[in-house]
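User: Can you help me understand a structure? I only have the sequence.
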Amino acid sequence: GVPSTSISISSLEDQNIQGSSILLNKSALIEFNNKLNMYAKTREYLMQFITKLVITNSYSIQLQSSLLAQLTKATNQLTRTTLVRF
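Assistant: Let's start by predicting it. Here is the structure, written out as tokens:
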């Protein structure tokens, strides 16, 4: 037989709520991806300048590393171009 824990009963209204929940999740994912792409484009733009900073002493190295750390606070935000340059 079927165990009683795997049986559930729901009304037709619950299906409508579940469908709208899926749409909300999809729109949230689209918004998240759009922001992630915007951040990536901004990082790539700023990396053009960071990599061209002249290293004259330890302070310029600290500046460059600090800027890189601020731009990539999360490891998954490193882009391929950023990884290749350093």
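Now, to help you interpret it: Helices lie at 12-50, 58-71, 80-85. The chain has one domain: 12-85. Let me know which part you'd like to focus on.
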